[in-house]
Amino acid sequence: MGISRFDSIPNNVDLNSDRKLQKALMRWQPNYLDWWHEMGPDGFQGDHIYLRTAVSVEAGGWAHYDFVKMPDYRWGIFLTPRETTKNIGFGDNIGKPSWEEVPGEFRKELRRIIVTQGDTEPASVEQQKLLGKTAPSLYDLRNLFQVNVEEGRHLWAMVHLLHGYFGRDGREEAEDMLVRRSGHKDSPRILEAFNKPIDDWLSFFCFAMFTDRDGKYQLAALAESAFDPLARATQFMLTEEAFHLFVGETGVDRVVRRTAELMASDPNGDVRAQGGIPLNIIQRYINEWYSASLDLFGGEDSSNAATYFATGLKGRYKESKKGRYEDNIALEGSYALERPDGKGGVTTEDIPVRRAMNAVLRDSYTADCERALARWNKSLEKAGLAERISLPSVRFNRLQGVFDGFFTLPDGTPTSRENWESLRGTFLPTEADYDYVRSLMKAVYEPGQMANWIAAPSKGVNGREPEFEYVRFD
Ligand code: BYC
Ligand code: FE
Ligand code: FE
Description:
- By secondary structure, the chain is mainly alpha-helical.
- 46% of the residues lie in helices and 6% in strands.
- The two termini are 30 Å apart.
- It binds benzoyl coenzyme A and fe (iii) ion (2 copies).
- Residues 113, 116-117, 120-121, 124, 151, 191-192, 211-212, 214-215, 218, 295-299, 302, 304-305, 314, 358, 400 line the site of benzoyl coenzyme A.
């Protein structure tokens, strides 16, 4: 019983010869499927979706595209292969061989990192549960489900590590992944951004743009890990992640482009009257999701981060890329950290680089977000408009780190709580904004048709036309 199910799990971890791992996964799998049915996409479970499945780790042929029903998706387990044994690339243990097993002294920290990472994956599926009902096109509907099943696979990737390397407490943690619920009062998901509702597609695109992008940087930091199975699992996750970021970045861009079109075509620039999303609402959504995603990097000045780096658990972005960092030990040098001065202003303080590793990773992320913003602004420019959108300051609207509880305008200018509260509706989405955006969310399920508030994509998926019937309703 059940063994045949394992033949259906694509993997390169020799699952067939690992009895213990099989047994653990066999117990977990039915609970995972129960969770998927309860908390995965609402409806559409019997429909045929044109989906990509990871079937190998070969650069050219890792993905297979076909129509599948989501519950039949083959969630697999893949580690990026290594040609040679690897040495630790940074921190106090630099140069020593990477770990194939979990060292006893770092067990707790490693488990915690893997659990935190794993928890975000099902959380995002829960947050996006209802979006299929209001998809702006079949192309977008299919992309949403692609992201959802792959986040499911990312959970599998972390559960494989928990089952394979952590024994009984790993199995307990794997069960708990299916128990916590996004936004639940008593057992919420671990990180705050994964408890926020995602009720409309502009929120979804912002989430995929800004929050999945935190995922990219966290995964990249873990892909440097001295714990080799974690490094290889996260490395492979990054191949799928690239598409999620594409969905977010091009999704926001398509909204901006459509808005620009409507602004340019109406002499009064009245986007609302034409059923589009005004630029200032888009800006407020960006402010909201960018600041919430910055919180996911943890505190800028963090002893946890210093420990993770020193021990080799977590590196910087592209730590092992030659020439990117002068020094992979990072015991010398400092980071100029901006923080509140205690008198209502802001000051800069030098802190040891190792303590600033969260901030260093976040800076790589911010630069990447700025690049995307520049692209969106190009779309405004091309439409002949003078308006521009921007990223708020990293000080703005923070609930973690040194600026938690500090009030600034989006440009970073300190202000009083009273002033901030009175201006809130100008820089963060209001209930009226959400109501308006939700009022536009009406499903469009005809192949090639597009909701009015968003531009069509420039190309389809896997070489198909944008008009392709990406979802075949049962
Ligand atoms: N919310 O030293 P600190 C993804 C806690 S997204 C709540 O400042 P640290 C995806 C912290 O736990 C990527 N609590 O931070 C995206 C600590 O608690 P204790 C997910 C928070 O530990 C879209 C205290 O505050 N992966 O993949 O250096 C769709 C002080 O912590 C938060 C990871 O996160 C917060 N935002 O860094 C699907 C990677 N921030 O010790 C998927 C694994 C901090 O006082 N996680 N705290 O009890 C980590 O590496 C670290 O846990 C963090 C926090 C970077 C998140
Ligand atoms: Fe993921
Ligand atoms: Fe993702």
